[in-house]
Write a sequence for this structure.
């Protein structure tokens, strides 16, 4: 369905937003259900398009899954099909995360190559390099990764670059491998941390969780467990920017301050007054924001998934900002759409220079990828008149009920079927 969003200028957002569970923690943890000999029970699972796509993929493999009211039960004992087909993988590239668990528990997997997406080529060579080092026989033919292994065995793997799903795939492969696996140059994103904690609850033996080196002692089998998905720091960051761009005063609840250091730091530099408790963060803006420079790097540095949102913020800030995107090679598609709204942005290779303008003007724009679409909503909140955002299915992949959450704090957003 080609829904559109109509966003009217909505300044001074006020009130509370309840943050949902993290999409990028739920996706690998749902795949970890493949490893469990009994039911894995999850709470705080966000109701998103990407999640229901993954549920469909796993059900197609014979896995029983119940998902309602943000609660999910996964029972993989009926798993009888080891293929992740192109039709599903192409719509949700995180499907690659079934590869490690299928190999670890069943010794075989056929997963369509995810292919690139709007923001880049998105290769999976590190996933394949690590699984091969653990003894998997992997061939790539007709666009599929075909992998078999008697039993994976522990290995010492140093990843060539920091890769979030690469770390997650190899971690899930190692927990049932024979012997010890050392994973070096691991991603330290909170979502990796959340997956590792869930695996430990299931009986895995992992040390170095949250660091760039994890040591995993393989075990014979894993059981189910109960686990609450960590709060989504990117969703929280997006609503924090919505508050800053509209000069509002908003409290985010059901969130975790300590996973948002780099974003909070940049918002503070922009002039936001930020207070917080154990599970809430309040953002208050008294005057127009100041331009903030940033460079995207792996966690705990500034996250690439917040780059588009901060470019939107900088379009109406006082001063000029320089943004450097170092993770993905093509993650500035939102820039041309923001320019159509009157933004003054120039891009040269992976550097964007944004000169603040007085205001943006509403018009029709098109979303191209998940976080780019979020940045267009943020721009629409501050732009004069109305902004129509096309292809909002991108938004629905990663934001649960965005228009409801924003309208609840004073925005005027309407979904056009
Ligand atoms: C994860 O993608 C996230 N997705 C992305 O979020 C996020 O932007 C990204 O990490 C970076 O933080 C999920 O967790 C489901 P990478 P992932 O492997 O794992 C290169 C969103 O908006 N690379 O960390 O695919 C790669 O090309 C999405 O929710 C290789 O070269 O990203 C990229 O340049 C978008 N070979 C860099 O590493 C590999 O084998 C980081 O990619 C793997 C990665």
């Amino acid at each position: 369905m080609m829904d559109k969003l109509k966003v009217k200028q909505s300044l001074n957002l006020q009130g509370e937003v309840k943050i949902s569970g993290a999409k990028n923690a739920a996706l690998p943890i749902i795949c970890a259900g493949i490893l469990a000999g009994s039911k894995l029970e999850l709470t705080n699972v966000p109701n998103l398009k990407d999640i229901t796509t993954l549920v469909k993929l796993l059900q197609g493999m014979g896995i029983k899954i119940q998902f309602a009211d943000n609660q999910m039960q996964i029972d993989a004992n009926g798993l009888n099909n080891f293929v992740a087909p192109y039709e599903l993988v192409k719509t949700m590239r995180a499907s690659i995360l079934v590869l490690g668990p299928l190999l670890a528990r069943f010794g075989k997997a056929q997963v369509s190559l995810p292919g690139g997406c709007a923001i880049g080529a998105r290769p999976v060579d590190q996933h394949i390099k690590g699984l091969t080092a653990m003894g998997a026989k992997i061939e790539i033919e007709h666009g599929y990764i075909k992998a078999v292994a008697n039993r994976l065995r522990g290995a010492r793997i140093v990843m060539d670059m920091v890769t979030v799903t690469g770390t997650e795939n190899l971690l899930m492969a190692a927990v049932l491998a024979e012997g010890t696996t050392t994973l070096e140059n691991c991603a330290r994103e909170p979502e990796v941390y959340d997956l590792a904690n869930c695996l430990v609850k299931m009986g895995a033996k992992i040390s170095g969780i949250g660091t760039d080196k994890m040591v995993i002692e393989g075990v014979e089998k894993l059981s189910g467990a109960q686990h609450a998905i960590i709060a989504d720091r990117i969703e929280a960051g997006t609503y924090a920017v919505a508050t800053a761009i509209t000069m509002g005063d908003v409290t985010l609840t059901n969130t975790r301050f300590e996973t948002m250091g780099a974003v909070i730091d940049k918002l503070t530099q922009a002039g936001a007054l930020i207070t917080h408790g154990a599970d809430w963060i309040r953002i208050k803006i008294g005057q127009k924001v100041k331009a903030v420079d940033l460079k995207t790097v792996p966690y705990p540095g500034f996250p690439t998934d917040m780059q588009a949102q901060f470019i939107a913020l900088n379009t109406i800030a006082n001063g000029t900002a320089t943004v450097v995107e170092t993770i993905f090679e093509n993650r500035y598609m939102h820039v041309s759409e923001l320019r159509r709204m009157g933004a003054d942005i120039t891009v040269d290779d992976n550097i964007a220079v944004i000169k603040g303008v007085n205001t943006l003007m509403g018009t029709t724009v098109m979303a191209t990828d998940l976080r780019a679409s979020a940045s267009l909503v943020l721009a629409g909140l501050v732009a004069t008149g109305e902004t129509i955002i096309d292809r909002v299915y991108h938004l629905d992949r990663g934001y649960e009920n965005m228009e409801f959450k924003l309208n609840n704090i004073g925005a005027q957003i309407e979904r056009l079927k």
Notes: The chain is about 30% helix and 25% strand. Residues 23-24, 27, 94, 120, 122-127, 161, 163-166, 187, 304-305, 327-328, 370-371, 398 surround EPZ (CB under 6 Å). The first helix runs from residue 23 to 32.
